[in-house]
Amino acid sequence: MNQDSGNHSPKEGPDKFPSPAPASKAGGGVGWEERIMKIISSISSALGFGQAKPEETVAPAGDVSTQLAHQRTDLAMERSYLAVDRTLMAWIRTALSMISFGFTIGKLGQVLHEVNVKGVIGRTRTVSIENIAYFLVIIGTVALLMAAIQHWVRMRQFYQMGLRRQFSISFIVALVLIVVGGFALSSLVLAL
After folding, report:
1. Residue 87 has pLDDT above 90, yes or no
2. C-alpha span between 88 and 76 (Å, rounded)
3. 148 with 173: CB under 8 angstroms?
4. What value does the mean pLDDT take over residues 86-97?
């Protein structure tokens, strides 16, 4: 038992004193370690790691209904985040199909040069295989670019509402596939 009636934490006995506060640097400025930590935290925040805002004050321990409301709101925002991420993944799947079909048709177009398409009225029209390939690759790449922009805007809105920043692999995949779509289009154009 502790005979001393002083205010000591459990780790500090009556014989131990609290550790002194670190001495400030000469001139009272911010040290280089603190500057590096600020730079790292701002970079990680920009990349989507860490938190967008400091945590808000938590309700008192006795107010259970307020705590449950905060938990439910957090879960609802997490579900919304996952729904936005799933939407982007669906656009990735669709755009990848269009880009790959366009590229495949374009390579087939090097062997076949024209296709006859019969219209509704019965009129026959000749369409170039390369035009179909270009159309599919362009539509797939532009659709994926627009979906990535929509995802980015929605994520910014969620971060402003207090959602914890998370790393989105699907956003990185979308950006990579936009570049791949650009390369596929340039490959088709340069093959002529």
Report:
1. yes
2. 19
3. no
4. 93
CB-facing half-sphere around the CA of 185: CA atoms within 13 A = 19
Q: Strand, coil or helix: what is 95? A: helix
C-alpha to C-alpha distance for 35 and 30, rounded to whole angstroms: 7
**Residue 59 neighbours by CB distance under 10 Å:** 14
Q: Which residues contact 113 (CB under 8 A, 6 or more apart)?
A: 128, 129
- Buried/exposed code over 137-167 (b: 16+ C-beta within 10 A; e: otherwise): bbbbbebbbebbeebeebbeebbeeebbbbe
Residues 137, 100: Cα–Cα separation, whole Å: 8
Average pLDDT across the chain, whole number? 74
φ and ψ at residue 117, rounded to 5 degrees = -110, 125
Return the domain boundaries, the chain: 78-192
For residue 64, the tally of other CB atoms under 10 A from its CB is 10
Query: Is the model's pLDDT at 5 over the cut of 80?
Result: no
Cβ–Cβ under 8 Å, residues 109 and 129: yes
The rounded distance, in Å, linking the Cα atoms of 35 and 27 is 15
d(C-alpha 118, C-alpha 77), whole Å: 50
Strand partners, 118: 124
pLDDT of residue 122: 66
């004050």: which residue's tokens?
A: 57
